[in-house]
Every structure is written in structure tokens, then in C-alpha cells.
Amino acid sequence: MLKKFTVIEGNIGSGKTTLSKKISSEYDANLILEEFEENPFLSDFLEDQKVNPLGVELQFLIDRFHQLKSPFSNSKPTVADYFIEKSLVFSSNNLSTIEKNLFDNYYSVLFEKITKPDLLVYLSVNSERLLKNIKKRGRKIEQDITPQYLESIHESYLDYLKNKKIESVLILDVSSLDFVQNPEDYALVKETILNYDELKTTEIVF
């Protein structure tokens, strides 16, 4: 059963947006997609991670808050391809200590004002597969991303998620699957998410 509010998270190029669209379409759910292209600081930052990382993270935090604070439909479930907590993951990886302290102060105020997910799914994908996906979709601003940066983001996600104690978390290693092109792979991932309450583990490698 699809929960009231399900978040599909993952690294850059993991397929989280595609999976969110497929599940929300199949179950007639509300869909929330991150509006990353509107961040004016992002392009320069992806070319050089030393260029205004605080501006990048604060802009994302504000944008994410405005999207997620809107009330959800009472009659339909909601699927999102991100949650505001990814701001903690990326800021931990990208900001200096003094910048992170400032960022966390803003985050703590905004986090209390939004609806929390009933299930947070993290799509774990190795960096080689991520780079292939990134190259295939061809977004210009992403073409200079390095495997080292992707690996650091992945480790930050795992460190954060494995210490979460509030919402339910499901980590799925989908490196060997192609749920975009292969209906059987999509069905496998979807059924795992829908049957979360019956699983005996919160980490699955396909």
C-alpha cells in the first residue's frame, strides 16, 4: 500500500525523479518535484565546488521549504522526489564549519513547519552507474561532476539516514537494475516500497 507521504531520495542521477513520476502516475498521487534549475548559484558551483556553496545551499533550503509547506490533498497520497532533509546532507558535504553552523540555524526553524514523510526511500547507486545516467540525460550543468563528488554525497546520505530515528527509512541498492526501461525491474522496486511494513530489513541489495 502506498503511504500517505512517500519520499524517493537519491544521489544525482539515481533515477529518483523518474521513479517518483512512475509511482505517482500509477497510483494517481500528488507529485512534488524539486525545482533545482531555478537555483541561480548552481551552475557555477557544479563547475567548482568552492564557488559560493553557502548561496547554493540556502537557495535550495528556501525553495524546498516553500514547496513542502503547502498542504497536501486529504484524498490522495503524495510522492516527492526529495525531502528538505537533503539540505542537511549536501550542506554537510559542501560547507565549511562556520557556514554549516549558520545554515543549520535556518534549517532548524524551517524544518519544524513542514509535513514529515511516512516513508523515506533512498536509491543507492554506485558512482559508475550514476555517471552513465548523468551523461545519458545530458544536462549541461552536470557534465563536470566527478565520481569523487558523487561518492562523498552518497556517504553523507548513508551517514545521515542510518542515524535517523523518526521517520521510516528504506535503503535500496538499485545499481544492477534499470527500472526506467525494464518493467520487471520497476515492478520489483515498486512492490518493495509498497510492502515496506512487511519487510524484515531496511536495506536491500537487488
Task: Tell me what the structure shows.
The chain is α/β, with parallel strands linked by helices. The protein has one domain (5-205): P-loop containing nucleotide triphosphate hydrolases (Rossmann fold, 3-Layer(aba) Sandwich). The chain is 46% helix and 13% strand. The chain has helices at 16-26, 42-47, 53-68, 86-94, 97-111, 127-137, 147-161, 183-194, and strands spanning 5-10, 30-32, 78-80, 119-124, 168-173, 203-205. Strands 2-3-1-4-5-6 form a 6-stranded parallel β-sheet, with helices on both faces. Helix 8 links the parallel strand 5 (168-173) and strand 6. Helix 3 (53-68) runs parallel beside helix 5 and helix 4 (86-94) packs antiparallel against helix 5 (97-111). The radius of gyration is 16 Å and the shape is globular.
Short account of what is shown:
Helix 3 (53-68) runs parallel beside helix 5, helix 4 (86-94) packs antiparallel against helix 5 and helix 6 (127-137) crosses helix 7 (147-161).
- Round the Cα radius of gyration to an integer and report it: 16 Å
Look at the structure and give the CATH class: Alpha Beta
CATH superfamily: P-loop containing nucleotide triphosphate hydrolases
**Overall structural domain count:** 1
Helices, by number, come to 8
What keywords describe this structure?
single chain, 206 residues, alpha/beta, Rossmann fold, six-stranded parallel β-sheet, 13% strand
Helix and strand topology:
Blueprint: E1 5-10, H1 16-26, E2 30-32, H2 42-47, H3 53-68, E3 78-80, H4 86-94, H5 97-111, E4 119-124, H6 127-137, H7 147-161, E5 168-173, H8 183-194, E6 203-205
Parallel strand pairs: 1-3, 1-4, 2-3, 4-5, 5-6
